[in-house]
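Example record

One chain of 131 residues, shown exactly as stored in the release files.
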Amino acid sequence: PLSISIDNQASILAGESFYLRPGSYLADHFCRIMNKVAKDNIDFSVLLRWVPGHSGIHSNEELNKHAKLAAEGRQSNSPRTKLPHYLCHHSLLLSISALQEMQSKATNEHWVHLWHRSPWFYKLNNIDPHI
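Predicted structure tokens for this chain:
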């Protein structure tokens, strides 16, 4: 079986069921890839194993080093040619929380616009300009 060691328990749990959290589309994409490979290969199996972070496993330490470099900023991002196809050729999906935040902001801006055009705004503004 294919054995993948992960030092992040949330990443392992994300594959168990559908989550509406930031980045969940990445876990969904991983599950789709694994399901496709499993369909094409009868004997295929995957073992996701949790390992304690910084546990001295060389490959884990190396990945942590690269993850920290990537998190430091744009100048340390991977070249586009080294990214997986789905990250290179498609725009990234937005998380549910990002969509909710955008919708909330747009709704609030629209409400403020409507409120400032309302006759009630002018009447109440004469009484209390802080409303």
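Notes: The chain has six helices and two strands.
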